[in-house]
Amino acid sequence: MPKYLLKYPCLCLMALFMVMNKVQADNGYKLWLEYHKVSNRQLAGVYRQQLQYMVFPASSNPLKAAKAEFLMGLDGMLSVKPTEVTNIVSGQTIVVGTPKSLNALPISFPDSIGNEGYLIKTIFINKKQCTLITANTDVGVLYGVFNFLKLIQTNQTISKLSVADHPRLMYRVLDHWDNLNRTVERGYAGSSIWNWHKLPDIVDQRYIDYARANASVGINGAVVNNVNADALVLSPQYLLKVQALANVFRTYGIRIYLSIKFSSPVELGGLKTADPLEPEVKKWWAGKADEIYNYIPDFGGFLVKANSEGQPGPQSYGRTHADGANMLADALAPHHGIVMWRAFVYDNKVPDDRFKQAYNEFKPFDGKFKDNVIVQVKNGPIDFQPREPFHPLFGAMPNTPLMMEFQLTQEYLGFSTHLVYEAPLFAECLQADSYRYGKGSTVSRVIKGDFNKKLITGMAGVANIGADLNWCGHPFAQANWYAFGRMAWNPDQSPAEIAADWLGMTFTNDESFVSPVKKIMLQSRENTVNYMTPLGLHHIMGVSTHYGPGPWVDNAGRPDWNATYYHRADSAGIGFDRTAAGSNALSQYAPEVKADWGNMKSCPDEYLLWFHHLSWGYKMRSGRTLWDELVWRYYTGAESVKQMGLTWNKLQGKIDPERFAEVKQLMQLQFKEAVTWRDACVLYFQSFSRMPIAAGSPKPEHLLDYYKKLKFYYVPGIGGNNYMTN
Amino acid sequence: MPKYLLKYPCLCLMALFMVMNKVQADNGYKLWLEYHKVSNRQLAGVYRQQLQYMVFPASSNPLKAAKAEFLMGLDGMLSVKPTEVTNIVSGQTIVVGTPKSLNALPISFPDSIGNEGYLIKTIFINKKQCTLITANTDVGVLYGVFNFLKLIQTNQTISKLSVADHPRLMYRVLDHWDNLNRTVERGYAGSSIWNWHKLPDIVDQRYIDYARANASVGINGAVVNNVNADALVLSPQYLLKVQALANVFRTYGIRIYLSIKFSSPVELGGLKTADPLEPEVKKWWAGKADEIYNYIPDFGGFLVKANSEGQPGPQSYGRTHADGANMLADALAPHHGIVMWRAFVYDNKVPDDRFKQAYNEFKPFDGKFKDNVIVQVKNGPIDFQPREPFHPLFGAMPNTPLMMEFQLTQEYLGFSTHLVYEAPLFAECLQADSYRYGKGSTVSRVIKGDFNKKLITGMAGVANIGADLNWCGHPFAQANWYAFGRMAWNPDQSPAEIAADWLGMTFTNDESFVSPVKKIMLQSRENTVNYMTPLGLHHIMGVSTHYGPGPWVDNAGRPDWNATYYHRADSAGIGFDRTAAGSNALSQYAPEVKADWGNMKSCPDEYLLWFHHLSWGYKMRSGRTLWDELVWRYYTGAESVKQMGLTWNKLQGKIDPERFAEVKQLMQLQFKEAVTWRDACVLYFQSFSRMPIAAGSPKPEHLLDYYKKLKFYYVPGIGGNNYMTN
User: Where is the Glycosyl hydrolase family 67 catalytic domain (chains A, B) (predicted)?
Assistant: First the structure.
């Protein structure tokens, strides 16, 4: 240690105070890469013992990034800097690299490791024990380093390690709905992190930290602009800006993608048409692709929202989704780019049931898409509701790659104000059984390509990231970014384990904090379903803003934007009959699923009103009537938010005061809004049921009319200048 | 020191590494309140010696805030926490408080201290030596504490102190041009820091840090919404949000103000008119004022932009500015609120010379405004140009309080991309001699009320603050926020001293960094004048966006929005003749000023083309022709930016890598944009002068047409959704 420390022992005290001071203040910017000091001194000592030396030659950018991260992490957590050596010092050395960077290794890799997997292994090299982090590729090593650091972040042993892991999906992509004016559609964490005006000249440190965070969970792609795309993004002026971002991302194994406007050949290219079968249109796109790859050799490809919500598409020219997607696929194929073609479509003429639209439009094209097209399907058939049944397309297109689209930003889950941990929602969909290939053909296995190895695979998450200091608005919203990455890497991971890891890395490993807060996280999504849309209710939020309750909405732009279209409440009962007697949407599922959900007796309470119109007096499994059960769920949902807050308040002092106070305030606001949801919905549905709120439950504070008249101005997420009201 | 430090000496090393690690990473969020560790160990020892004990009773919020800041600062800089005592330990104790909080003090204050001044004094109390920080009020103590911390931040002695200071202006206010949708008009540092959607429930830590930063430089007011105001801000729903901010600000001695829309009685109140002489209108405003003060007992008052750029005002009803201002003043007077009435007006019918409009409209009303009205006048007659002569109203209204309005956000100074330290611009205006009360009646003395003690006084700065991590976009833009506070406190302070303080507090006290960078700062504004608008050119920027050069603009909404209106370049020469032979705007100044500037021989080069139309061949003081001088200035301006960048690059390693790298990139971009300004303007004016660019100067890279055709999309500062082009 430096001499002056002995000469000025007080310096130790100084330094330590400073550490404590620094550790206390935390605005959440560092996400789960806080690299907190390991508080267990004995454990820290053991770690340090094993990390005194390193063999870590780094010439490529990814290896340099891995090495920098490795040193930053160890410095932060253990305040050690391993001495660089060329020969292993037994028991005290860590060896990091590829067979190439390490000039051959005396070990063989399991084939499964592939291009992105890694090994972390305690082995003997020339009879000397060391910890080895290795992979076939530099990016694999980067992933290995992040996962090694995670072991220390979560205070696990690094002795006798034998970890081998690899991603189960090929394309693990964040979709940013960011506009070029820096507003973010359905974004609740401030403006876009992409400063297009200052790009390409100014490369914000934030871009690097964004890439680090993604790489730490294995996210390997980013679509940087809104699916409601601006043709301008394909202009040379903007491609230079995109290139600057791509140059940052590349180091971290992330490929950049763009959302494109299907009519770009007209708007940008000055052509008379964007008809995908027109030779001049094909030529324009091929030329544009060549141009893009000139700027960005590893460009990922296009994300396309076509013929949906007013966006142009092949149907505007009498062509099919396959025609449009394949034309773009041909333009990208020579450069190994892909087309992510969204299945979120509904016709401009209102269908009998919006639920059925995507299936009806895409099922006929199974097998008709080029190999580098992947159809991006939302987890559910409507639109990212608090709870949806899995999308009927999963399993229904055996010869078409389907990419899962989850929404991380909480458009329908309380914006960045409500604590909703989404991993249980993801898992519920991924583990649902489509029965399309017999029992056990889960959605997870479908998107992993278990039933058709030829297909490319992927998962997309609509980002919840903005320019807020803490990136996601709500400190706990960071967990959804983190969990998405973890589950895109391996869709079958447990939400509980992911939550525990995230809490340890983000806040503390103190069990007296982790254990109760993990419980809160795991219960949070069900709470929100209960106070917003229990028993299978869906799409009853405020119109346009999607903020707050709006079960009374019946005058939206089109019938299937109305809440009344979905809940169908009347004096007789409530719910959308999607059995054969109704819209028959259930026929889009495998017979086993149809039979299970189509029978009101076997249909789980959670999905009941998705598929059945039931009388208010209908007897539920609980023994309660449907009305009483509905009311009970709304009250339970709000009550559980209150309890969550009480639990949190007991944890003061266990984490930094800033984030503790922020979450405390947020939970109070969440409770306020949960009560509004509860009271507005119960009062509204009561106007049909004419039945009383069970005795003992507090009466709503206001009359229904009060909630209907609530106005909200400048609600975030609907464009910077909008002045929408509920 | 804690025992375990002796038992585990390695911990010292640990802690120290961590400090080094933390100190290295810096995103600029902490502004000039970094509280860096004092690197000079000997000096630190001396400081610590004198700060071992403290007498600091704190019961009120401002005193609690002062104490928390005091402890945070000492912990960060010295890692000491003075032991709280009730009796002074001689030579080692600091005593902080008011006579009241300290139960009487054996010293008397100079009267000048007033309600916001403070004393920092090394004195003997009962024969015991101590350092005393005291004031008449709690906020005065807070200011004293910040200034004591500044002594340590800038490594000055705290022995034998005798500091007495007080603000020279009463109202020291930041004007935020922030819209309720979180866009910021002419804002270049991201979106608004006010999260109106989450307010009042969520009180962001950022609001507290904002208030701390303001208090540290004595800013005591904030107008939180855009002068192009939205009537909605006066609705109960929004007043609750404003109240939440006011509750934060109050602790730090900051009063909150609102920009109001003059037509609010119609839009919000449902009245048929907003005529200020209508009894029902007076009644509405009086009632609204009562309502506001119900929420915010110390509400500051209203800022009003009336009958300007399409905003409604008293003239819309055939009334005068005085009618409008006085009506609002009457509503606020019972609550001790003030009206800040902006003089930035120009008629909807185009005046002969926009320069003269404010003077013509306001001069006649001298003495006609109520005592709680202050007229807010921009530093120059046009609009925050890189250089303007001082506004002719200063000194011309002996019986009317005039509040200086400076613009911190760099609408015309390169956005948040160009390093422009504005204190020299402020000083140039403040030290200008109006001669209205004889020689030496500077603008500074006018706004300080030296010539009419009855008047209230103030200074406003249009904020350059946004949600960017570093608050102001450019790390050096923070210096303009800081300098504004310092000069609002005392308009006669030296820009050089302020720059040195800011550099020491923000980056380091290392002279090898401070000295060259201070030079850069002090020269920066002149550089920008040279590459944008040398020799008195003004208003030749891109239309609407105000981004980049646009000397050719001749098709704007109205003649006096055109660049050609201002530079009047033709084959004969260039410049706006404002002598008696021209618009005679000079007649609005005192005879001495008129004589000096009106004579092209005595008129300083800096103002020449503001007042004279001169031939291209006109011989300048330098001996060059006007054309050659103009070209020389443009080239000198761009060259000096290049030199600035070379100087900066030599400073690598002296500060944190993040901010070093960011500024390095910014300087490269500034140079690029400076060259664009230079080449576009030189080529454009050459099309009139038909004279050559002096030999040796590099030729412009492109032809004039190239620069005219440049298009910029989604330029920041013109509203979130705008898609303006140059």
Answer: 152-471
The answer to whether the beta carbons of residues B534 and B544 sit under 8 Å apart is no
Residue A105 lies in a domain: yes
Same domain, B188 and B140: no
Residue B60, class by beta-carbon neighbours within 10 Å (0-12 exposed, 13-18 middle, 19+ buried)?
Answer: middle
Residue B414 shares a structural domain with residue B560: no
Within 217-236 of B, beta carbons closer than 8 Å to A belong to 232
User: Which chain A residue lies closest to B26 (C-alpha atoms)?
Assistant: A205
Cα gap B210→A423, rounded to integer Å: 36
Q: In chain A, positions 41-80, which contact chain B (CB-CB < 8 Å)?
A: 41, 72, 75-76, 78-80
H helix intervals, A448-570: 478-489, 495-506, 511-532, 563-567
Number of structural domains found in chain B: 3
Please determine, for residue A724, whether its predicted confidence score (pLDDT) is greater than 90: no
Give yes or no for B240 touching A (CB within 8 A). Answer: no
Strand partners, A1: none
User: How does B472-481 read in b/e, with b if 16+ C-beta sit within 10 Å?
Assistant: bbbbbbbbbb
Contacts of B706 (CB under 8 A, 6+ apart): none
The predicted complex's ipTM stands at 0.94
DSSP A167: -
Instruction: Return residues 160-189 of B near A (CB < 8 Å).
Output: 180-183
Mean pLDDT of B98-113: 84
What is the nearest CA distance from B47 to chain A, expressed in angstroms? 13
Mean pLDDT across B25-31:
91
Shared domain for A201 and A286, answered yes or no, is: yes
Domain that holds residue A550: 530-576+613-708
Residue A24 — very low, low, confident or very high, per pLDDT cuts 50/70/90? low
**B104 has a pLDDT exceeding 80:** no
A198 touches chain B (CB under 8 A): yes
Task: Say yes or no: A562 and A678 in one domain.
Answer: yes
> Do B177 and B93 reside in the same domain of the chain?
no
Q: Which residues of B are catalytic?
A: 309, 383, 411
- How far apart are the C-alpha atoms of B109 and B380, rounded to whole Å? 39
Residue type, A410: Q
For residue B371, the Cα-to-chain-centroid distance in whole angstroms is: 25
A11 touches chain B (CB under 8 A): yes
CA distance A272 to A266: 6
Residue of B185, B267, B284, B189 lying closest to B230 (CA atoms): B267
Which ranges of A298-456 does DSSP label H, i.e. alpha helix? 321-332, 357-362, 423-430, 443-447
Same domain, B244 and B178: yes
* B126, part of any domain: yes
The CA distance from B175 to A506, in Å, is: 37
Judge contact between A138 and A60, C-beta under 8 A. Answer: yes
Q: What is the mean pLDDT of residues B688-692?
A: 98
